[in-house]
Write a structure and sequence with these properties.
Layout: E1 5-9, H1 14-25, E2 30-33, H2 38-44, E3 48-53, H3 70-84, E4 91-95, H4 121-138, E5 143-148, E6 150-152, H5 164-174, E7 178-181, E8 187-192, H6 193-204, E9 212-215, E10 220-222, H7 223-234, E11 240-243, H8 258-264, H9 272-285
Protein name: Nucleoside-diphosphate-sugar epimerase
InterPro entries: Epimerase_deHydtase, Lipid_A_modif_metabolic_enz, NAD(P)-bd_dom_sf
Pfam family, one: Epimerase
């Protein structure tokens, strides 16, 4: 059986759609499977040499008061590992969360060997999936774990409480107030969707890889700085309402992307202002 296909589990999401478009342009055989389509997942795996696990039903906000929601994500990952036992040559690329699994790291930028100390249930869910994947990897299976920073760019749908840049641009377009949790000085690392896709397509070409990598811009911006960039790009002020900080939110996180840059001869090419401008242009034309 030909196993040249690439399976995108959760491929209908933001990163999955962009990745599918790139792979289709390269004439790859792409199988897109939703997180609730277990029968299709079982049928597609034998045809695919690479599985990219992007599926997640939660965000840090959505499972904050409902930790049991993370069980669905863990159950899907365990089901995938069960199916992969009969496909030992399949390369699995798992998208974890660089923005949540480290918690508040002692040093910035944070490297992949830093302790895992999530503050949110979502981060704890990602960390638990990583532990099971590490056990599977220890038995000789090729598993690459990617810890992306905050993804943004054209094609990102609006999700309540998730995706700062997409949310800010929506409020700018609609002239509606945006709630900021805390003083706006928390620092985040943002990476443009094209840079994520480029790195991922290069990882697909390393079928024996079993590393863990930060996928990031390597540059931090405070929320207030991002607000200023959005106002500059949109040429209008944003109406902000500052609220008390939430315990689930990481204070400062910047991801060190040195390992991935060296492995792939890759570097993020789109800086934040350019990326925000491209996203705003797309949103106005959508």
């Amino acid at each position: 059986m030909n196993r040249d296909g690439v399976l995108l589990l959760g491929g209908s999401g933001f990163i999955g759609r962009a990745l599918a478009e790139r792979l289709n342009a390269e004439r790859a055989v792409v199988h897109i499977v939703g997180r609730n389509d277990g029968d299709r997942l079982e049928r597609a795996i034998p045809e695919c040499g690479t599985v990219i696990h992007l599926a997640s039903a939660t965000t840090p906000g959505s499972s904050a008061r409902n930790p049991n929601l993370e069980l669905g994500n863990l159950a899907l990952t365990l089901r995938l590992l069960e199916l992969l036992q009969s496909q030992p040559e399949t390369h699995l690329i798992f998208f974890s969360s660089g923005g949540t699994v480290y918690g508040n790291p002692d040093r910035l930028p944070v490297t992949e060997d830093a302790p895992i100390a999530p503050l949110s249930n979502h981060g704890a869910g990602k960390a638990s999936q990583e532990v099971f994947l590490q056990a599977y990897r220890a038995r000789g299976h090729a598993i690459t774990m990617v810890r992306p920073s905050n993804a943004y760019g054209p094609g990102q749908t609006l999700r309540q409480g998730f995706g700062l840049i997409r949310t800010l641009l929506e409020h700018a377009c609609c002239d509606t107030p945006i709630q900021i949790w805390g003083d706006g000085e928390s620092v985040r690392d943002f990476i443009f969707i094209d840079d994520i896709v480029e790195a991922t397509t290069r990882l697909i070409k390393l079928p024996l890889d079993s590393g863990t990598y930060n996928l990031s811009s390597g540059t931090g911006y405070s929320i207030n700085q991002v607000l200023g960039i959005v106002e500059k790009v949109c040429r209008k002020p944003l109406y902000t309402e500052y609220r008390g900080a939430r315990g689930i939110d990481v204070r400062n996180v910047i991801l060190d992307n040195t390992q991935l840059k060296e492995l792939l001869a890759w570097a993020p090419l789109v800086d934040l202002e350019d990326g925000v401008r491209r996203t705003f242009t797309w949103l106005r034309q959508a």
